[in-house]
Amino acid sequence: MVFVKYCSSDSWFGDAAAGPSTFGYAFRGSRIVSTVVAALVANNGLGSSGAAERLLFAGCSAGGRGALTNLDIVAAAVPVNVQVMGLLDAAAWVDVQPAIPGMLTLQQMTQDLYTFTTPPVPADCAATYTGASAWMCVWPSYRLPYITTPYFMTAAQFDAFQVRVRVRCNMRVLLTPFPPDHVRHQQPGEQCVLRDARGADVCAAVPDGDPGAV
C-alpha cells in the first residue's frame, strides 16, 4: 500500500505555479499524483510482472475528490496489464445552497479553487461546461458522468463536513465535532435540528418523508 500525505491544499486536482493569481502559492496536486504513479511504474515495479495486476486508487474527503478527478489520468498512466479501480470516499458534494443565507458556499469555494489551480479536465467535460461554468468539471456530481474508469463510491447521508459547512458561518469551528446530543434525527413531518457553535438551534424546513434533508 502507498499512502500519499495531503500536501497540496487543492483537493489533488491543481497544476498551477506560484504567482500573483495564486497569492504566491503553488497548487500541484494533480502533478504530484502523476509523479507518484510514474515513480511506482519506474522504480517499484508496478505493471512489470506482465501478468494481470490491479491498482485500487482511493481517497477520502479532499483525497476522494482528488481520486475522482485523477482516476482516468492514473488509469492512462499505468501499463496496460494494470487494471485500475477507484474508491471515492466522501467525495460527492451535493449542489445545494446553505441553510443560512450569505454563507460562503462550497460552490464558491470550488469556483475560486478552479481559478487558482488551473486543473486538467477531460475535453468532453470542458466542452460541456464552458466560460463561467468551467469550474463544474471539478464538482463531483458534474464530473462523474465523464469518468470512464470503474469505481466504487461511498457517500454518507449525513456527511459531517457538508452538514457543518452548510449550517455554520464561522469557518474556524467548521471542523469541530458535534457532540452526540446536538444531533436529532428528523422524523416525517418534523424539522431537522442542529445546534451551532453557540448552542443555538439551526433549523431548516424539510418536506415530509425526507429524512436526509437538511
Notes on the protein architecture:
With 214 residues, the protein is α/β, with parallel strands linked by helices. It has a domain at 20-155. The protein is 29% helix and 14% strand. It is built from six helices and six strands; from the N terminus they run H-E-H-E-H-H-H-E-H-E-E-E. It has helices spanning 29-43, 62-77, 106-117, 123-128, 140-143, 160-167; strands at residues 53-60, 82-89, 151-154, 183-184, 192-195, 201-204. The strands form two sheets. Strands 1-2-3 form a three-stranded parallel beta sheet. A three-stranded antiparallel beta sheet has the order 4-5-6, with no helix packed on it. Strand 4 and strand 5 (192-195) form a beta hairpin. Helix 1 (29-43) crosses helix 2. The longest helix has 16 residues, at 62-77.
